[in-house]
TrEMBL record:
Biased composition (Polar residues): 250-273
Organism: Streptomyces parvus
Protein name: DUF317 domain-containing protein
Pfam families: SPDY (PF03771)
Occurrences of domain DUF317 (ranges): 61-118, 142-206
Residue ranges, annotated region (Disordered): 120-144, 245-273
InterPro entries, per the entry: DUF317_SPDY (IPR005523)
Domain of life (superkingdom): Bacteria
């Protein structure tokens, strides 16, 4: 089901009455509005495969290879699951995200999934340039030490690692406190998706949250934003319009590529009237 005007109006109605507060750092900003994720995919042509009256959401890509599941009643802590089936384009892969993972950071992954991937880049580049401390070649942590990134190799003989991101309560010494949220990318997840997630995670710019809206931790800093509610709405609308246009262009290009060539016969006599 494509993204409708009514759904965009519903998003606008909610945010028009919220006073936006700049909230950061991002890893403790709270979940935000899940429609940052679902509206982007719907605009890109993903279809709903779940009960529209149920609490769970399942979206499938037009080619049925990719599935996003949102399960707010999950007992595992993984409220978001994103997976791809094996195909001629590449192997299957899996990623998951916890309840309090900010929707805008997850949306960076899904936006990257539905647009043309950039050239491969080292996912550590945005982390180090964002001022996060590298504990080793395979780990890094946020300046407040509450969020940790770990790159895990299955074995010394395996080529690609998996990625584990975890935000936790402050602990004692080397030990972290209780987990707030997590993200996981298996070893077959395309590198540009991991890079998109980490780039959005370490971005120093605050996220916008409404007054009294849930944050990930009481340490999150908040101050009235210079953005007006309408600017928050306009940014969301412009983003989904851009994703919709990109998706339509990609589908048209694919159709032109796969369409059989039409043969013409220049020697065919003209029809007399």
């Amino acid at each position: 089901m494509p993204l409708s005007e009514r759904q965009l109006v519903s998003f606008a109605d909610k945010h028009a009455w919220q006073v936006p507060f700049d909230t950061g750092p991002r890893h403790v900003a709270g979940p935000g509005d899940a429609r940052h994720v679902t509206h982007g995919l719907a605009a890109a042509g993903w279809n709903t495969a779940s009960d529209p009256l149920g609490p769970e959401i399942e979206l499938r890509s037009p080619d049925l290879r990719h599935i996003l599941q949102f399960e707010p009643q999950s007992a595992t802590g993984a409220w978001w699951r994103l997976q791809a089936a094996p195909s001629d384009d590449g192997p299957g892969w899996y990623a998951e995200f916890g309840e309090l993972a900010p929707a805008e950071i997850l949306a960076a992954v899904t936006d990257a999934l539905v647009t043309a991937p950039p050239p491969p880049a080292d996912p550590w580049i945005p982390v180090t340039s964002g001022g996060w401390e590298r504990d080793s070649e395979s780990t890094a942590r946020s300046p407040d030490s509450m969020c940790r990134i770990v790159q895990r190799q299955l074995s010394q003989f395996e080529g690609r690692p998996s990625w584990h991101i975890e935000t936790s309560e402050p602990g004692h010494g080397e030990f972290s406190g209780p987990r707030i949220w997590h993200a996981y990318f298996d070893e077959l997840t395309p590198t540009h998706l991991v890079s998109s997630f980490l780039t959005a995670l370490v971005d120093p710019r605050p996220l916008q949250r409404g007054m009294y809206e849930r944050t990930g931790h009481h340490s999150a800093g908040q101050k009235p934003s210079a953005l007006r509610p309408q600017e928050v709405i306009d940014a969301h609308t412009e983003r989904v319009i851009s994703l919709r246009a990109h998706s339509r262009s990609a589908r048209q290009q694919q159709a032109n590529t796969t369409a059989p060539a039409t043969k013409t016969n220049s020697t065919r006599p003209a029809v007399r009237r």
